[in-house]
Amino acid sequence: AAGSRRSSGRPLSRAASMSLRRQFSQNPPPPLRTGSETEEPLEKASQWARAPHEWITQRVDIVRGFVASDLSDYVMRFSMLLLGAYTLYLAWCESCKADYLAYLAGVGEALLDFVTLTRGSLSGATVAVCLSVWLLTVRWMRRPAPIYLIDFKTYRHCGVDGGDRDSTAGVPASQERFMAESRAALNRFGEPCFTEKSIEFQEKIMKTSGISEMSIFPESILPKSGQNPLGKDAEVLGLSMKGAREEAEAMMCKTVADLLAATGTAAEDIGIVIVNCSLFCPTPSLSAMLVNHFKMRSDCLTYNLGGMGCSAGGISIDLARRLLRGHEQKGSLALVVSTENITQNWYRGNDRGMLLQNTLFRCGAAAILLSNRGSDAGRARFKLLHTVRTHVGKDDLAYNSVIQEEDADGIRGVRLSKAIMQIAGDALKRNITALGPLVLPLKEQLKFFFNMVARTAARGKAGKPVKSLARSLVPLPLFRSLVNFTPDPADQPLPSPKPAARAAGKLSPPRPRPEKPEDPLLKALPPYVPDFTAAFEWICVHTGGRAVIDAMEKNLALPSHYLEPSRLSLYRYGNVSSASIWYELELIAENGNQCGAHRPDGNLPAVPRKLRRGDRVWQIAFGSGFKCNSVVWQCMRGS
């Protein structure tokens, strides 16, 4: 009856309402339960609201609140008050006005001697010493806190070289297996996802990608052996929010657990958690997933960075640096996790601009533990020196070069522009222009500066007199090495074209205007590329693809073996997005400059070398937006 009354939409009378309440109190419904039947029943919301509650604060929370406060600040304030009171006590004298006036006159005389540069004045020298002590104190108090990298770990599958036997999440995929799954992939209507041309295109990219048979895919895309393909139900059963969460949790939590165990750090000791994942931003966030899984404390600061592409690893380090150098985070630990999720981002359409992501991206994660505590300097592996971030998103072409959108059939994917290499080169140029003065030796900086001035003057941008002077000075032996002037003897100025012949009484037919010959002097005066091997012993370039690594090696004029850690990382793990620079650093720590020996056609230097104390490491990555970010470390413990 009650159900019929409620369904009819008519309000209950007061008598009927009281009758229902009496009936409910005499025969209450079974309590709500969550999970298994053995768990304690939950109260109904109305019962819980009517019952009296007493909020009890645990003792550990009270103690943590006092510890979190800056006790040194309270001590300084109390000491200043005591010192001020003691000063008044010492200076209190009713018959000392003449002495006070004499003292003030002496102070004024000392300041006057200091301002007028009076030599031999002891009082003026005293003022100078006091000012120096004050400035040194201010400088010492304002110095930035050093940031130490205690340790880091990456997720390495048990089927990959160096992988942990407990790391079983993911499936190593051979090219044959990947292509077989792509051919068998069905959309929700039971039709093949990919056309034959798309299959051929992916197969061609896979063969030239430089990725081995050991890189891993999530089980939602490539089921383990013995499991049946999901077929047309893949988007519901595998490529779902649940599958994406399982991939993220398997990669991140295993990596963080290994890091905490290796450093002997309790999860409750971490004060900052930063997670970056570009294409998967669920609710609750991935940082909340870590807090829940490892039961971190309630005042832990959590940040979740999304949509920032493969360069987000450097952004996370920069954010952690800014937080750890804040006044409120003294003596804190920061956990940074870089990962990418491809379960819901496996493109199942036929747009070639979007199919590239299927052939390059793989599973992976990296966890980094940072500290601003001076006591951690002895066990830290690296010290953070610089972070430089460059964003060229104001340009529309750069902004749209890497963009997630739907194709013509409404299928979502990430589109890569054909101009992405040119955009990356421009962002790289801006980034190293800001980074160079921070890391390059003075000799390299002077060469870069004089070369830029010489090229500007030789083009005539500073006026014709300056142009004539520059073109006469640059070829001289004294200035050649200074401005990087390298003439080619085979280059000779081309003869000027002869004017058109005139026929008798008639003009000859117009001839096409000849191309302007290239200026031999400017050809022999190319832009100077600084020698970055003089600034860094190791360079980790984001593994965006074989073409990206080759272009970086050419543009920076690096030796052939310098980027072997990047090539080996691409070969073993594929493009693991923002975590790639940490896979490369781990390979450097394990193999030194012998990474080329662990892949086919690798390059080896003449002299083997390991990672040593004092070595500087440059991590550089590119990301959507478009961004180029650099992080510079100094090694504190050799491998």
Please characterize this protein's 3D structure:
- The protein is α+β, with helices and mostly antiparallel strands and 639 residues long.
- Helix content is 43%, strand content 13%.
- It is built from 23 helices and 15 strands.
- It has a nine-stranded mixed beta sheet with strand order 5-4-6-7-1-8-15-14-13, with helices on both faces. Strands 2-3 form a two-stranded antiparallel ribbon. It has a two-stranded antiparallel sheet with strand order 9-10.
- A hairpin with a 3-residue loop joins strand 14 and strand 15 (627-635).
- The longest helix is centred in the middle third of the chain and has 23 residues, at 241-263.
- 33% of the residues are buried.
- Residues 1-12, 28-41 and 492-507 have low confidence and may be disordered.
| Quaternary state of the chains | single chain
> How would you describe the shape?
globular
Total E-strand runs:
15
What is the SS-derived class? alpha+beta
The percent range for helix content is 40-55%
Query: Strand portion, in percent?
Result: 5-15%
